[in-house]
Amino acid sequence: MSLRYALLALLRTGPLSGYDLQKQFSVSVGHVWHAPDSQIYPELRRMHVDGLIEPEEQVRGVRGTRILYHVTETGDAAFLDWMNSPLEYQRVRDPAHLRAAYLESTSPEQATIFLLRHIEQWRDELGQWERELTRIDAVDNPMLVRRLAVTPESEHARTIAFKRFTYEGLVERARTEIEWAERGLELVDRLSAEASLRAPAGDA
Amino acid sequence: MSLRYALLALLRTGPLSGYDLQKQFSVSVGHVWHAPDSQIYPELRRMHVDGLIEPEEQVRGVRGTRILYHVTETGDAAFLDWMNSPLEYQRVRDPAHLRAAYLESTSPEQATIFLLRHIEQWRDELGQWERELTRIDAVDNPMLVRRLAVTPESEHARTIAFKRFTYEGLVERARTEIEWAERGLELVDRLSAEASLRAPAGDA
DNA sequence: AATTGCATGTAACAGGTTACATGATTGC
DNA sequence: GCAATCATGTAACCTGTTACATGCAATT
């Protein structure tokens, strides 16, 4: 049920349409909580039904409309309640470590491919998050700017500090994953070397 | 769809019942892939329908039965295919970092509570994984023992090495999370101190 | 006039969670 | 005789994914 709070967090910076939210999901909050558009639109409806947000229809051109959603007082309270409630941690479900635990069942080559892909995967994430960190420092992220615009100036440093803190955590996590997989590559090589010592294949 | 491969991984050490598997999920593979019993029994049926496993009914007492599942050749091949196929990474969906990004919306006290809980959460995981590491070193984990029993001795070191590698990764991840949250606590304190410098509350 | 981007959704399905439901066996 | 635990599931629900579906507006 975090989707609704991710949406509320964005909407608390000011009204946005489903489409706006969808885009933000791919660049800002999407870095910590992915959601496809097919999930966002129905959820917005439910949030409206629950009184957390209020739609405002806007005319676009001759016949087009777009719906801007405003956070209601109820919605604001719901967000703050969530912030102050114990977080529900998700059960572990980690395909990479699941596979890692059984790498002995495949060849060193396949193990290497798996580990290289793991490194690639996390390097991509790392790149995104590092870029986001520099954007935060430059106060260049559109959502952060929106957020600061509706925040008293005395709170600006705090707001930025927590965003930075969040992305620092993500960056460290990515680095940890990469280092782990790199040690895995060394392990695969070491095991292969040991095996070929015991049973040389290419020798006479 | 990793559940089925987690189940196959366990069954490849020899036949087990749904109940056995359920227990293993809470102590071995469950450390990387959680699954409740209500998911395991239906999945075993589907795996039987798909020809990956073969049930063997066993009499228990006068009327009780238990069903042992054996991996078929098809099942074995399916597992190895999975091992050699690109891993499907899950989209990021991280409630802790989502909340961290908006900690400025709550009080320092609530932020502290959140961070302390995060530390507690990961310390629990860390403890489990560290215990598992010592069990691996002592060759004391029942599933590892089963696994080694059906593995040629020349492969024992490899098998143990990858298990160790897996849990080392989990341990590092937990440590990274804990360190991050501890830095978060310092940040909250620092921000509170700065705020009370600018607007002293307890003073005359 | 065509392309890109804005804007809104529906439907079918897969995967996972929670709660419910039942009964037998074994050890004390 | 009772408790623990072995052993098997069903049902309803929620969340998320993938694919499909439509059409206007602004720019080139």
Computed Rg of chain A:
23 Å
How many β-strands of chain A, per DSSP?
3
User: Strands of the largest sheet of chain A, in order across it?
Assistant: 1-3-2
Number of helices of chain A: 8
Global morphology of chain A: elongated
Helix content of chain A: 55-70%
Stretches with pLDDT under 50, minimum 5 residues of chain A: none
Strand content range of chain A: 5-15%
Largest interface: A-B, 70 and 70 residues
Judged by helices, strands and strand pairing, the structural class of chain A is mainly alpha
The CA-CA distance between the termini of chain A, in Å, is: 64 Å
Major pleated sheet of chain A: 3 strands, antiparallel
Oligomeric state of the chains? homodimer
Order of helices and strands of chain A: HEHHEEHHHHH
Average pLDDT confidence of chain A is 92
Number of self-contained structural domains of chain A: 2
Could you list some keywords that capture this structure?
3-stranded antiparallel sheet, mainly alpha, Arc Repressor Mutant, subunit A, 204 residues, DNA-binding, 2 domains, 3 strands, homodimer
